[in-house]
């Protein structure tokens, strides 16, 4: 039995991609709320922190917004409309450098959050 290629991306990246596709296809249209994190975590067999990281990716992309106490993230744009509405002003080299550094920091924070979540899971019963 031949298996397809193994998806080696981080779970939160795969989940963010899946949710992005669902938003783009209209499963979750603009104005709708994504399912609560606990339900998504159960559905994907991952921790709540992994779901939080996936939602953070979509929030950074401007696709969803979250509010404390809300049951889920609200869809505010679709990937295609977001790209269509984006204007591409000339950006300075300094802006590009800062933006790249910010993306690196965000990636490091996501990795640290995932590691902390893993440690929390391992030490839960101690």
UniProtKB/TrEMBL annotation:
Q: Which UniProt keywords apply?
A: DNA-binding, Transcription, Transcription regulation
Superkingdom per UniProt = Bacteria
The record's PROSITE patterns line, in alphabetical order, gives: HTH_GNTR
One GO biological process this protein is involved in is:
negative regulation of DNA-templated transcription
Give the start-end ranges of region Disordered: 68-91
Matching entries from SUPFAM superfamilies are given as:
Winged helix' DNA-binding domain
Q: Where is the HTH gntR-type domain?
A: 9-78
Q: Which CDD domains match?
A: WHTH_GntR
Q: Name one GO molecular function term.
A: DNA binding
Q: Which Gene3D superfamilies match?
A: Winged helix-like DNA-binding domain superfamily/Winged helix DNA-binding domain
Fetch the InterPro entries from UniProt: Bact_HTH_transcr_reg (IPR050679), Tscrpt_reg_HTH_GntR (IPR000524), WH-like_DNA-bd_sf (IPR036388), WH_DNA-bd_sf (IPR036390)
Q: This protein is called what?
A: Winged helix-turn-helix transcriptional regulator
